[in-house]
């Protein structure tokens, strides 16, 4: 596919640096407050995203990747959440938007797809009804027009025999088709930004690859930006332009997908890559990251990865490490970043 | 891995009954159909052929990996082996002794020798028992006195990397996912079993924790002279841990053989598609065309003949009319159920190397 290759290797910076980024998140913090404790789920996340770009946020459970997405979509419970910082998508200042304004944005300019389509789709309405509802809500068209658009969308997401599937209920579809139907709902108003929260994690391997290829094709055809949350480095390698690695509520490393996955600068990224099992490691001990992530209810001194880091030194605990920017646009929040290859360092 | 497997067999194990060459577990033509009831009278209107005539053996000291997609029957198979659900037909032989029946070993004996670890680490622990008591529960049921059982539980907690003094008195909700799974493994080991069935035991864990638990499993296998049946949908993990691999599709075995044979030269088109669906970690190696299209079909009315034919690029008339038998390929340990692999099956590609 020459088209694909051309799009994949497009010089993102050159074409798009002239206009302001589509998504601009500055110093975002999210705290969940309850009577017993305050959980600092996201601690100062900053990133931007150009139109038509794919950013993968990689992290393990509790790293704050899904919370960041939900904050961007204003889906967090307002009475128990304290959000500070600044979020902008297109012309919308998400931080200051009212709920009713936000409702007009959700599903039209920003859409979201989830891990479990069975809970995201309404079980008592047909797939066609659910797509048509979104179209009618945002584009104020007739039901017949909306249904025609729903059929088009099912064709777009490559659902076989789409006429029949329009009238199907979610439980009548297989997992892969359900996920495609949810993608169709999300794309129904041609969003500028698609938020995808682990949409392929629950799928079987042979179906996951189909959905990933589909999402990438649609993203390129429609020219939309996408933020894709995953814990799977292989998924990121398949779909991302840029990658942000999160740990304990912070982005610890950011850069082009090939730079981050092939030349990681942060010890956590390196550890994630080393502990991801692949076949030719048979018979050897896996280089696992020891310990477990910190408790975010407690105040963390210095770099949050220090207790698990094999490169840790005394200075790591002094202050949270600043992001060190490299020439290729990659940055890592580690005091060692940019000072030689990590893999060459002695193992403690 | 072959080396380490034979090394463990050579160790003397006083629990051994059938001898070194006797497989630890033989499953012979296991079958489980779940009835589907409907209508006013709740009459049977169909059945899910969850496990259909599945036969295999698990050798002493090896790790047999079972892979397949959701709905292929791998978890039902695990539950059949543990007798957690009753089989419709077939036979189980544990170290030479048939399970159940007049001359065989009892279910109680089987479960002392064979234990299981489940995917959901939280729901498989009693939320009202401190984890140390959960571990001691099995030995108590099998007649151990309270103090000894408690001591054993503490030792096992240490063995799985949780300090008993610190973690023993905690309840399941006070532990992380990885820690709970370690407790589950400790509990499975409490009866000093010879074989563990690990049903997606690391699938719900984060990658860094998964790596820790896999290291632990490798270490425990050597220390306790264990045999593993490792069920997973993660092909990389199965390749890492297994000596032999069994590929299931819609309730049937489609291919079984040594791990390197299966991963380097898969003979069944489904095994090949499954392996090609693995994601490369290198962004330069992106896949643009899916290896196969569609989802696995519904196991209620599986296709006639070869069940994979509806998604297979090589399907011919013979695939719809006859069920392919599991037959040996070049290597005598490697079996595949595909008409293309058996000469004279009537398939135009039969007998050709591919």
Rg over alpha carbons of chain B: 21 Å
Topology of chain A as a string of helices (H) and strands (E): HHEEEHEEHEHHHHHEHEHEEHHEE
Shape of chain B: globular
Low-confidence runs of chain A (pLDDT<50, min 5 residues)? 1-16, 344-348
The SS-based structural class of chain A is alpha/beta
Q: What is the mean predicted local confidence, pLDDT of chain A? A: 88
CA-atom Rg of chain A in angstroms: 21 Å
- The tally of strands of chain A reads 12
Assembly status: heterodimer
Sheet of most strands of chain A: 8 strands, mixed
Q: What is the topology, as strand order, of the major beta sheet of chain B?
A: 6-7-8-3-9-10-12-11
Task: Please bin the fraction of helical residues of chain A.
Answer: 25-40%
Q: What is the CA–CA distance across the termini of chain B?
A: 27 Å
**Rounded average pLDDT of chain B:** 90
Beta fraction of chain A: 15-25%
Low-confidence stretches of chain B: 1-9
Strand content of chain B: 15-25%
Structure explained in plain terms:
The complex is a heterodimer of chains A (348) and B (354). Chain A has 348 residues and is α/β, with parallel strands linked by helices. Helices cover 33% and strands 20% of the residues of chain A. Chain A contains 13 helices and twelve strands. The N terminus and C terminus of chain A are likely disordered. Chain B has 354 residues and is an alpha/beta fold. Helix content of chain B is 31%, strand content 21%. In chain B, strands 6-7-8-3-9-10-12-11 form an eight-stranded mixed sheet, sandwiched between helices. In chain B, a hairpin with a 4-residue loop joins strand 1 and strand 2. In chain B, helix 4 packs across helix 5. At the A-B interface, helix 9, helix 10, helix 11, helix 12 and helix 13 of A face helix 7, helix 8 and helix 9 of B.
